[in-house]
Input
Amino acid sequence: MSDVLAVHRHTTRRTAVVTAVLSVAVLAVFLLALSVGDFPIAPPEVVRTLLGGGTVRDDYIVLRLRLPRALAGLFVGLAFGLSGALFQRLLRNPLASPDVIGVTAGSSLAAVLCLITFGVTGAVVPAAALAGGLATAVLIYVLSWRRGVTGYRLVLVGIGVAALAASAMSYFLTRADVRIAAQALVWITGSFARVGWTEVRMAGLFLVVLVPAALLLGRTLSVLQLGDDAAKALGVRVERVRLALLALAAALCGVATSVGGPIAFVAFLSGPISARVLRTGRPGLVPAALVGALITLLADFAAQHLLSGAFQLPVGVVTGAVGAPYLLYLLATTTRGAAA
Amino acid sequence: MLRDTTTAPPQRRRAPLGAGLALGLVALALAVVASIAVGTKGLPPSVVLEALLHRDPADPDHLIVWQVRIPRTLIGLLAGAALGLSGVIIQGVTRNPLADPGILGVNAGASLCVVVAISVLGVSSMTGYVWFAFLGAGLAAVLVYGIGSLGHDRATPLKIALTGAACEAAFRSLTTGILVTDNSTFDQFRFWQVGSLAGRDTTVVTQALPFLIAGFVLALASARILNGLAMGDDVARGLGQNVPLGRALCALAVVVLCGTATAMAGPIAFLGLMVPHAARLITGPDHRWLLPYSMLLAPLVLLVADVIGRVIAQPGEVQVGIVTAAIGAPVFILLVRRKRVRA
Output
């Protein structure tokens, strides 16, 4: 028994350390994103400006130009990381991120329809993306309902829906004029270039509700992990909790997608990376969210400053290149933690 | 999934499963005829038969059959069979129902190589793409399997799946990076990317055939290995299998088959993922039945999708990759709902 307690204490301590280190790293990259650019502003100046004591020029550059984008990266990363880890743990499969089971595909399809078929741009696109993601999530849940929903059936139905959405998207892409198609491609890839305060404020409002709810309910995940029967015996209303968690995960994913597009791989990568850094064998929710934020902020930083000149890469191009090698490194070096 | 075998004794299942396989063959033959007959210029079956038996180079109908429809049908048959088989094997090797043949990085690697070929080397023909796609698929698979086998516990199913997905992420990032910075490459690539059987000639088939035959033999021979692996590494080892070797051979089959199929027809998504699940609902978990069933069902779906793609948008056509998902996904969802599937 004392061994069990010792292991438990060790894991808790490791989680605390990892969470602290990740938080500091996220904060550092966040400040870096605010200070680097065509007009470099030293980090202490940035902090002073954030606290309300900056010059007019610094106010404009930091608060007007750079802060919305950095906040978008932070929010979107947190939401994707959390959403991915929730899906992966609920469905007990490290490959079951919202990218795979169709939630983001629904968002993208809605956005592509707006851009290509209806020729709408601007604020309608994020709203449509959010609606598309949520509608897809509901559709997947309804289609996989048959006297209850098993994780396996949900995943398979999700794959089917994802394939359907993706094929519709490809169809519209090949039918469209190449310039509009290229514009849609940027949206599908994910980019923060056009994000302003409106989107960030909306996302912030949603996240203030969704994140605490997800973390609170997420505490039952370790009980659900024991299997439905055991969880029921321990007094968890399995079906209801699972539905609530799935809804929260889908909503988080939808909100994140509506801000910057379906930024690829953040949701998939955060979980396995956090599981391996924690050495618990499964993704922790807070660390996964922080890993997501870190990947997104780093990727957006690289996307803005990697190519010299006016051209900026969409952030979704870089996330895979930033996060994937790190996961590969972890996979090649860690020997423990076989499960997701 | 293993529990299913115990519910029905194998002796009793063998006859209906064999009959089903024969029925599948008949359906496939019909699909082949339809694929040769249907198109922008519809040909009656009698003309098709005539063209097949007595080829007349001067007859324009025979020309259509031999120059356009037959290569296309052959590629559909071969690519479909290859994708169906590799889907079963990859799901068996990684023990993950979400794994598709692309998970070894094959599709993403092929795409990256083709994009580089278009963008940097200025390659612009389908026959040119084939070799780059094949090169990319091979390199990617070696990379994924290499990284997946590093570390203390060697190539566990989970590590292969995660390594593959991570590599896929990295490759796709690079591919999109090139595409968003280079509009003319994107314009060419978007048509290769959706997957199509059109515009390929017989040289593509002859180039691919040796690889495919080797892959088919390897795949059909791997049923016992896969049945062992399905029960877990320890049980497989207890049954006297060489687990790392078996897994490596299976992975090799996936790479050869999926790489060749991608090189021939572009990255046709979803087929390799869907067909094994559909076949499993018919056959149960025994790979000795699952492999041949998938090998039949996948080209059937692909050819039917291709024919439909030619009919619905006349005089143009919709690429087969798009139709496969558009038809396959609803059927797949229905199947998943109807049957009790266990994880």
Notes: Chain B has 15 helices and no strands.
